[in-house]
Amino acid sequence: MVLTRVFRAVGRSSLLEAGGASGAGQAQQQLARLPLRRKYTYRSGALKPMPEITPFGLFGVICTVIPGLLIGATISKNMANFLEENDLFVPSDDDDDDD
């Protein structure tokens, strides 16, 4: 989508440059034929309807994030216990002897 906008902008500028003083009318006719993406109006000029509003916006985010954090914490705790039980990763006690 971004590349389409870039190529359209390059095409419009090249049409204007190529037209010069004598072909300015022709270049503007070609520019008028290029489709523009309008976010809030149709081609006829009529306004588009309002977008649907999600009624549970913030509540939905909270209901998604909190279980995700809890599940992730549980998985990481279980993996840490597994690694420690199998002696794959055991924290060294040498760092605690600084007293």
TrEMBL record:
The keyword Secreted appears for this protein: no
Name the UniProt record assigns to this protein: Essential MCU regulator, mitochondrial
Entry's family note: Belongs to the SMDT1/EMRE family.
Task performed by this protein: Essential regulatory subunit of the mitochondrial calcium uniporter complex (uniplex), a complex that mediates calcium uptake into mitochondria.
Membrane-topology descriptor: Single-pass membrane protein
Single Gene Ontology BP annotation: calcium import into the mitochondrion
Summary of subunit composition and partner proteins: Component of the uniplex complex. Interacts (via the transmembrane region) with MCU (via the first transmembrane region); the interaction is direct.
Main location: mitochondrion
